[in-house]
Amino acid sequence: MGKGAKKRKKKIDSEEAGSDSSADYNSMKSFEVEPPKDKYEVFKIPDYVRYYPEDGGNFEYVVFMESTKPEQPLGARDMMSLANSLKRYNKGVKQLQRINKFKIGVIFERPGLANAALTNKKFLDSHSLKASIPASSSEVTGVITHVPTDLSNEQIYSALTSTKNIVTIRRFMRRVKNDFGEFNLEPTKTVSITFSCPNLPESVDLNSWRFELRPYIPPVKQCLKCLRYGHIAKFCKNAERCSICGESHNFKVCTKLPKDASCCHCKGNHIAISSQCPVKKEQIELNKQKVETRSYASIINQKSFPPLKQHPTDLLASLLNSDQILNMVVESVVKLVAMHKNSEASICSQSIKDTLLDTIKRNKKSQ
User: CB–CB of 265/222 below 8 Å?
Assistant: First the structure.
């Protein structure tokens, strides 16, 4: 289960908590949990299953289903028969969508119905299927820094308290070249925490030390075989390309030096996997835009809202330059003043609106 919130006795500034020189972490080493053989192995709570929250607020809830038998992909099955079975043994199926030959998406209108399909063991077993939901629908990941490297991921989990359920702890590792020219993985002081909720908490407590959370930006997926973005080499079926010259061979046999490289994406003087590539920078920015903190501020500022086609000042200029619109406004004002003078009606926002609408209607009829 997740970690429950504990009452804080003292609020610690995030910079003070992250400083190695000022913070005494000796008390963190006294946990009873024995670290695993690999103390930096990703820690996940056992038997965890993703579910849609009841207050998710989505219009659709998708459940991914794929075959448990690789030799029998869904694309090779009778899709009409499968659709009938899905709708017969799972309530609330709204729509079906083919993702690829191995996976389909089953769309439900309510989260409870989608969650029921995840646990419909009888149906899943009888059709050799496994079900899951996308992590982005029920989980959010944040990052904390300045975490002592002598703590294992399991020890970190044991010491954490939060208002949200914690399901995964992962420490960031970096590759360091040793004296023999080999690369070793060394731990950093940055740790990611995944919560089973759609909204990222502001902070967590690590053995009473408060750590501020910032959104986790996932790395860009770039295939080291074909060099395209969006997938990795393990699943690539494209032809191999050299990251130095862009030709159809492995970079290890390339006769060009990296200083003479020509990027196959932007034609710049760098290798195709360089972080300096403008195309890669665009992909990184896209990843940042996809990360939703789901706070009020992010909702009202999100780019999914359609932008105004005209700037307000441009719109005002267009209106002032339209003789027809100005004439209707003037006609309405004159009529309102005359009505008020004769005490037929008082001037208010509603009377102005009604008079202007009446003027527009009469102008339309006369055209």
Answer: no
- The continuous run of DSSP H or E covering 168 comes out as strand 166-177
Tokens of 105: 């998406």
Query: What digits encode the pLDDT tens for the residues 298-350?
Result: 433 444 444 444 455 555 555 556 677 777 777 777 777 776 665 555 566 66
107 phi and psi angles, rounded to 5 deg: -100, 130
**What is the number of residues in the chain?**
367
Q: Mind listing the pLDDT tens digit for each residue in 265-297?
A: 999 999 999 988 999 998 888 877 777 544 433
* Residue 22 · residue 16 · CB < 8 Å: yes
Q: How far apart are CA 364 and CA 211, in angstroms?
A: 64
Kindly indicate the confidence band of residue 38, based on its pLDDT and cuts at 50, 70 and 90: confident
**Pairing relationship of beta strands 93-98 and 43-44 according to DSSP bridges:** unpaired
CA–CA dist 366, 361 (Å, integer): 9
Question: Listing from the earlier edge strand, what are the strands of the sheet with 160-161?
Answer: 160-161, 203-206, 209-212
**β-bridge mates for residue 175, sequence order:** 185
C-alpha separations of 109 from 90, 112, 124, 252 in Å: 12, 9, 20, 51
Cα 352 from chain centroid (whole Å): 47
| Cβ-contact 348, 336 below 8 angstroms | no
Q: What is the largest CA-CA distance in the chain?
A: 99
Burial class, 86, CB count within 10 angstroms (exposed 0-12 / middle 13-18 / buried 19+) = buried
Are 243 and 250 a contacting pair, CB within 8 Å?
Answer: no
Q: Measured at the alpha carbon of residue 320, what is the angle toward residues 314 and 323, in degrees to the nearest 5?
A: 135
Cβ-based neighbours of 171, under 8 Å, separated by 6 or more: 40, 147, 149, 153, 156, 187, 188, 190, 191, 192
